[in-house]
Amino acid sequence: MRPSGRNLNEMRAVSIETDVTKHAEGSCMIRIGDTHVLCTASIEDRVPPFIKGSGLGWVTAEYGMLPRSTSSRMRREATSGKQGGRTVEIQRLIGRSLRAGVDRVAMGERQITVDCDVIQADGGTRCASITGGWVALKLAVAKLMKAGDIVSDPLVSPVAAVSCGIYAGQPVLDLDYPEDSEAGVDGNFIMRGDGQLIEVQMSAEGAVFSRDQMSALLDLAEHGVRDLVDAQLKATG
């Protein structure tokens, strides 16, 4: 029995509210169970120096957790003068995941920055950030197309992510914090809407896993990503 009472292949409740901020070209609040993330997308008519003049666009991301997004207050990273290693790793993951669904030639020489701010954390914040980040990106791109700044949609496929793991000896979908903290094996699966894998992060702690178990987790992830893509398309429809 899972702590939440969910079935092994059952996602937490998913909701995506769009246009939640006034100034960003694209924005949404994604809620996956008790994990809530504010995602905004900002368009800039510039690109990093290493691709300037190439005609290619760029998508990047920043990620952060508010001080009381967790059960006890965390210190703001800005007060220490630098980002932690976990933060840097997650925002790089978000950026490269979103770029995997973008035709950077069609995007033109501009940059879209996706900011993901965790309001409340209960497991799976990086997965929620990727899933919500794509929605914010989609809304920003729609504004570029409406204005005639680009002529074809550079988003070739939705991008979504979900966690899976081995909890109490069983493969389970979409770990919340009680499961994530106790799982012997956990992984994050980032996929495009067409079923192509972008990245898989899996590790064992206090246990090992077999190829059959990994396949079972991948099957669960495909199921979960399909549900998330449905929610993304409904939100941006």
Automatic annotation (TrEMBL):
<dbReference type="InterPro" id="IPR001247">
    <property type="entry name" value="ExoRNase_PH_dom1"/>
</dbReference>
<dbReference type="GO" id="GO:0000175">
    <property type="term" value="F:3'-5'-RNA exonuclease activity"/>
</dbReference>
<dbReference type="InterPro" id="IPR036345">
    <property type="entry name" value="ExoRNase_PH_dom2_sf"/>
</dbReference>
<dbReference type="GO" id="GO:0008033">
    <property type="term" value="P:tRNA processing"/>
</dbReference>
<comment type="similarity">
    <text>Belongs to the RNase PH family.</text>
</comment>
<protein>
    <recommendedName>
        <fullName>Ribonuclease PH</fullName>
        <ecNumber>2.7.7.56</ecNumber>
    </recommendedName>
</protein>
<feature type="domain" description="Exoribonuclease phosphorolytic">
    <location>
        <begin position="10"/>
        <end position="140"/>
    </location>
</feature>
<dbReference type="GO" id="GO:0000049">
    <property type="term" value="F:tRNA binding"/>
</dbReference>
<keyword id="KW-0819">tRNA processing</keyword>
<dbReference type="GO" id="GO:0016075">
    <property type="term" value="P:rRNA catabolic process"/>
</dbReference>
<dbReference type="InterPro" id="IPR018336">
    <property type="entry name" value="RNase_PH_CS"/>
</dbReference>
<feature type="binding site">
    <location>
        <begin position="124"/>
        <end position="126"/>
    </location>
    <ligand>
        <name>phosphate</name>
    </ligand>
</feature>
<dbReference type="InterPro" id="IPR020568">
    <property type="entry name" value="Ribosomal_Su5_D2-typ_SF"/>
</dbReference>
<dbReference type="Pfam" id="PF03725">
    <property type="entry name" value="RNase_PH_C"/>
</dbReference>
<dbReference type="InterPro" id="IPR015847">
    <property type="entry name" value="ExoRNase_PH_dom2"/>
</dbReference>
<dbReference type="Pfam" id="PF01138">
    <property type="entry name" value="RNase_PH"/>
</dbReference>
<keyword id="KW-0698">rRNA processing</keyword>
<dbReference type="InterPro" id="IPR002381">
    <property type="entry name" value="RNase_PH_bac-type"/>
</dbReference>
<keyword id="KW-0694">RNA-binding</keyword>
<dbReference type="GO" id="GO:0009022">
    <property type="term" value="F:tRNA nucleotidyltransferase activity"/>
</dbReference>
<feature type="binding site">
    <location>
        <position position="86"/>
    </location>
    <ligand>
        <name>phosphate</name>
    </ligand>
</feature>
<feature type="domain" description="Exoribonuclease phosphorolytic">
    <location>
        <begin position="158"/>
        <end position="222"/>
    </location>
</feature>
<comment type="function">
    <text>Phosphorolytic 3'-5' exoribonuclease that plays an important role in tRNA 3'-end maturation. Removes nucleotide residues following the 3'-CCA terminus of tRNAs; can also add nucleotides to the ends of RNA molecules by using nucleoside diphosphates as substrates, but this may not be physiologically important. Probably plays a role in initiation of 16S rRNA degradation (leading to ribosome degradation) during starvation.</text>
</comment>
<dbReference type="GO" id="GO:0031125">
    <property type="term" value="P:rRNA 3'-end processing"/>
</dbReference>
<keyword id="KW-0808">Transferase</keyword>
<keyword id="KW-0548">Nucleotidyltransferase</keyword>
<dbReference type="InterPro" id="IPR050080">
    <property type="entry name" value="RNase_PH"/>
</dbReference>
<keyword id="KW-0820">tRNA-binding</keyword>
<comment type="subunit">
    <text>Homohexameric ring arranged as a trimer of dimers.</text>
</comment>
<dbReference type="InterPro" id="IPR027408">
    <property type="entry name" value="PNPase/RNase_PH_dom_sf"/>
</dbReference>
